[in-house]
Amino acid sequence: MEQNKTDLAQEEGQFEVGAVARMVGLSPNTLRTWERRRFIKAAHRTASGRRRYTQSQVEQIALLRKLTEAGDSIGSIAEMPIEGLRKRVLEFQTRSTEHSANQTKLVRILAVGPKALLWTSILPESFQASSEARETPDIVICELGSDINSCRQDLAVIRHEHPNVPLAVIYDYAPRGAISELSKKGIFLINAPCSAELMAHYIHAAIAGSSHQSAANAQRSDKSPDRLFSEEQLALIARSNPSIKCECPHHISALVASLVSFEKYCQHCEIESPEDAELHTHLGNEIAKARGIVEKALLYLCTKDNIPYSTEPAS
């Protein structure tokens, strides 16, 4: 009789803990623990206290299982709507596909400009970045600084020498007009610094012919504190394998690099927009103070976790 009730409940879209556990590949105890900690909630309980889950809840639990196995913590994703869970699972699957492709194909990158070469140096071994094209590259990545004219010239040369090779422009802080101009031309834009994983994703997307338009980001005075890390040192820290089980070294080094870029951008604005020089001087000073604080935090982290970095002073 009880089995008949269970079958009827399942036909009506209601599933007991045991059935759900078998369907999604989790133990009943895990489901009960998740519910006790309010990560999931049964649609209702029977008069005898048995939990019942709907079909959509079964899908939700299955997605949660996939994401926790992929590395997400249950607490960070439990409240996501089911569409968000589906999207995140798809992201993991895309990254897995890209990772598999990376293992079998070497991606050759022609990096035009010192920063383009520096930023692509954080990529895994399946990418090979060089400032010289010894053979036809899979993609050309050109650097955009504060001078759009220099970038235009580089792009013209690249298109002449490598007419059928995918092209991307990488930048940190650049004039809004320059970003808008490149965006309208359909050029793939990469806003750096970013993680090695995200950089790899952007490069694969550019090679595949996707479009990515980064938002434009609109730099330092004589009073700013001395830099503790050069761009080469920051790149070295970003590539390190810390003993702590987190991404703090990468995130903090990326933050420092971003603040340094904004300081330099403010310096450029002081020259290009004399009428707003006082404003940009103030912004540069304040950002420099913040950069100094974050650099000290990064130095503390490197010291505590024995993360190697060059001891040469930053320029």
TrEMBL record:
GO terms for molecular function: DNA binding; DNA-binding transcription factor activity. It comes from the Bacteria. Gene3D superfamilies: 1.10.1660.10. InterPro entries: DNA-bd_dom_put_sf, MerR-type_HTH_dom, MerR_fam. Transmembrane segments: none annotated. Signal peptide: none annotated. Keywords: DNA-binding, Repressor, Transcription, Transcription regulation. Residues 14-83 form the HTH merR-type domain. This is MerR family transcriptional regulator. It comes from Pelagicoccus albus.
